[in-house]
Design brief:
heterotrimer; A mainly alpha (311); B mainly alpha (323); C alpha+beta (575); B: 323 residues; mainly alpha; 2 domains; 13 helices; 76% helix; globular; C: alpha+beta; Dipeptide-binding Protein, domain 3; 6-stranded mixed β-sheet; 18 helices; 33% helix
Chain lengths: 311, 323, 575
Amino acid sequence: MSVQQATLQSLKAGRRALWRQRLAENWRVFRGNLLGKIGLSLLVMFGLMAGLSYIPPLIDPMYHPMTGVDPLVVKSTGPSLTHWLGTDFMGRDILSQLLAGARVAFMVGVSAAFMSVVLGTAVGMTAGYLGKTTDTLLMRLADMIMVLPTLLVVLMLAALFGQLSIWMIVLMIALFRWPGVSRVIRAQTLSLKQRPFIDAARVAGASHTRIIFRHIMPNVLPLAFLYMTFRVTSAIVIEAGLAFLGFGDPGTVSWGMMLQWVWKTGHMFTAPYWLLPPGICISLITLSFYMLGRAMDEVLDPRLRDETQAG
Amino acid sequence: MRKYIAKRLAQVVVILFFILTVLFVLFRLAPGDPVSRMVDPEMTPEDAQHLIEQLGLDEPIWKQYLIYLKNFASGEFGYSIHYGEPVARVIWDKLPNTILLFTTAVLLSAMVGISWGKIAAWKKGKGADIGMTIAALVTHTLFLPWLALLLVWVFAYQLDWFPITGMVSEEVFLDPDAGFWAKAVDVGYHMVLPLATLFLIHFGSYLLVMRSSMLETLKEDYIVLARAKGLSDRAIRNKHAAPNAWLPVVTSVGLSLAFSINGGALTETVFSWPGIGRELVFAVSQNDYPLAQASFLLIATVVLFSNVVVDVLYAFLDPRIRY
Amino acid sequence: MAKCFKRNMMVRGLALAAMVTVLLGGLCATPAAAANGMLKIGVLEEPKSLNLWLATDAWSKRVLSLINEPLFIREPKSNELVPWLAAGKPVYDAGKMTYTVKLKKAKWSDGSDFTAADVIFTGQLINKFRMPRHRSKWSFIERVVAVDKHTVRFELKRPKAIFLSRTLTTPIVQKKQWEKIVASAQGAEKPLTVILRHKLTNPIGTGPFVVSKWQKGVFVFMKANPHFFGRGQTISGHKLGPHIKGIIFKVYGTADAAILALRKGAIDFYWNSIQAGYLEQLKDDKDIKLFVSNKSGLYYLGFNLRKEPFDDVALRRAVATLVSKEFIIKRILQGYGEVLHSMIPPGNSFYYNPDVPKYGYGKSMDERMKLAYNILREAGYTWETPPVNANGEVVRGEGIRLPDGSPMKEFTILTPPADYDPHRAMSGQMIQEWLRAAGMPAVSRPMAFGALIQKVKGQHDFDAFILGYGKLSLDPGYLRAFFHSRYNKPRGYNMSGYESAAYDALSNESNNAMDPKLRQEMIFQMQAMLMAAVPYVPLYNPKVIEGVRIDRFTGWVPMLGGVGNIWSLCQIKAK
């Protein structure tokens, strides 16, 4: 083992330790944040719901959220022992649908957010690092996409190309929600570019890709992660809005879809047990991600942290 | 400054042209058939073809594109397939309704949100602040169509205070004696619930932005100085702190406009408010290409220009920025 | 500090209160439903156009059906064609192939006379410009001549069974009003477009009502037409008014709003079929009467016979066996529909053939699976896991293989989207599950309506689809258009690609058969042929549920398609 390798290893170990320390510190601050705590506990609850969604269909096929119907029920009925939240117009169990909806919300929210953040980070770093024409072009594109009302754009695409599957919807949301992320990441990259360690790396002969991935990316990732929580909110809301208007994926039981069913089948005024739960869930999950995002904002932004502690 | 505005406007025009082209390509790629609903089962394929030709849907693609550009340049936007009227006229009928609802909602929520945000920051940590912040957080994240349905359920159905949907009542508009004010009151009465929906969703974001921006400002030296000079709280808050806290709010208005427009379309749909958003949803589902394209372009134009206005406004408000 | 905060809040509170007061002022400004003999009808959308030739949407047709009248219409009780603008039954001259029709001495709503010239003009207009929705009913008319001012003679190129039921039921427009428009279209490059795009705000008609005021997006007000030819007359045993001063069509946008308006008494009638979900709340209301009427509808599952896997009749029969129409009707339609076994609904009793194969009707899901399994096994299909095991028990089938041994490829069932028709979208979902239980790789995919039609009708690029016709003509002429090989081309109506020389010949013959009895026999035979080949699986014919308030008006006339019809509106009276 050469000396160089040993140094490199100890350097890596040191970096890991630093990371761990930073994480522990952040967690401590996070725990002190009321918003963050509420948001996180709500999220845990929704996570539980999503996990539990696999159970009802195992008890009885009639609890399958999409295709299971109670053989004794042919219309919407209120809460009962067999159906804790009642049934929809076909005799399907609303509770099982609600649980399945949590799963879909997580799936849509997290995957759309992840994709848009990856895309936004990539574009932001490229634009910030390369600068010049690339920067101008990418940022003008970002400006343009940023101001488009995503729901209406996806709605138009959904109507034009036939009903979109849930994954297409996720992809569309990701494709239209990256510019905000890329702007912030670009700004961060620009400031990083001026730091001495980047220059040092360049002098040492590192390639552009290496500089981007090894030196810039680790430093913008926390910020990107923060943005992800906000993107989750918007992705869930857009999917729900789309489903509500009747342009969602009909093979998926999402909360927006449930609201569409209650609205379109004429049960809005007669079945509060059906109207209330999906709406409350969408609102609460949005709220919890939002709170989490704000809490993380404070954790990651030392300036805000000082202020919290001072105040 | 003038040069900057000119540059921004030029950019907007380029972007609009780009959107226009993307729209054209999208709508031609789509597999929809706008005449499918106009033919009867026993119509021969030859006659159906004749109709396609008559409507100009069989022209070569480049020619269609030129016609399309010409229509937009002339401000006529072509003919709506289902109304059989120039698109401009269809839109013209609906635009004032949207403007009425939307601007009232934005102004009202901005006014309330900003003034309450100011107070919340001033009373940081006190009951009023916590109460307002929580209210803002909760209402801001409510799912809009659901909130709308809920308001209808409670205030129009259970309590029967307001009409369920629509914009005017025919009694008033058919009554020859009804003057302008009677009509205005009638419209206002119909507007309460949609306005409440948009207001509840939006005031929170203004409040939160104003609050945090105000907190930043309050830490600035000149506020400390003002305090030291012994100025009253009220004077410091309204004369010194607030004007500077405005800047981030202005930016956020511009950036959240797209979000608000989504909400506007959903609100119009739930309340059957005869506006552009509802028309766009309808046109899209009916494959009325020209109408959908024009409505979308109109919305994009409004958003783009508002952003220019916001940027320029920002420059005026912030003496530190010079172009 | 605290004080000024309070004062600030107070000022704001006052301002808000003042605003609310102004807005609430509207409460008092809305008078109770004016008891002035106006009928208020709730509709979902406003009419798109009052130009008869352009209007294709249901809402425009509702308004226009009260303005532009045809020579003959269907009588509610017998469902037979009776003279309307015509004065008597058409007289047929078989030798010369002509029909002579005497016209009523009616007047247009502007006071001018309705004459033979108007009928001739309408026919010419349709043929000259190839009016999209009317051309097929007039293309075989050689010419129309005026025998005298109030008699017209139709000269046919060839005998055509649809002449009576379709051609003579075309609405007639006024020559005086349209002459100028036609003249302006003549020289144009795209004459049809000029006609379609002509904006008509005051269509002149012969019907019971005329449009008086149209507040865009809000309401259409129609006044009673003082020149209506039926006023005070008795036509086919119906004494006609109209006895009301006018009709206000109120646009509600959502069914919720319209139903609520009906319950509150803001409208007297909601002219649309009501979703079963609303019935609970309407049933107990003693001021509301519900009418459940049949309609002439055909909702079906169609196959693409041009390609694998549905080019095989055995598979089509198996699918027909697996589809539980009873389930769809009971659950999805909430019981408001009738099972269809043939391409002609049973309500059309003269042409409906009750003796066609019924593919598993009345059987349980397990029995259906066994039946389908047998059909497929005999045709040479194999499975990795057959849906019926060695003990004869039904299990979940997997991995079906075609008779040639290759695995069945995934196929798609296209349906309209849920916002357009939740019933069909959901039926598709259920059918997908049933077919999957038999091991078939089925995927149900709702698609925007225009895109769906384009794929199915325009490009023939599909496996299976669910579509429907809500207002099928009572004349069975459509059987020919749906399955004749001549229409098996892009944009043609033979979407499934069924081709049979025997069927072509028979349907041609039936199309020209002027003797009803003979035609009936042929139509029976055609239905039997179709149900043996199953290019479509007929699913259901939904019922129309309509709600009417009975506290202000009486005299609604139920008929096929519901109480929302011209007879009702000509006969209802204020209480």
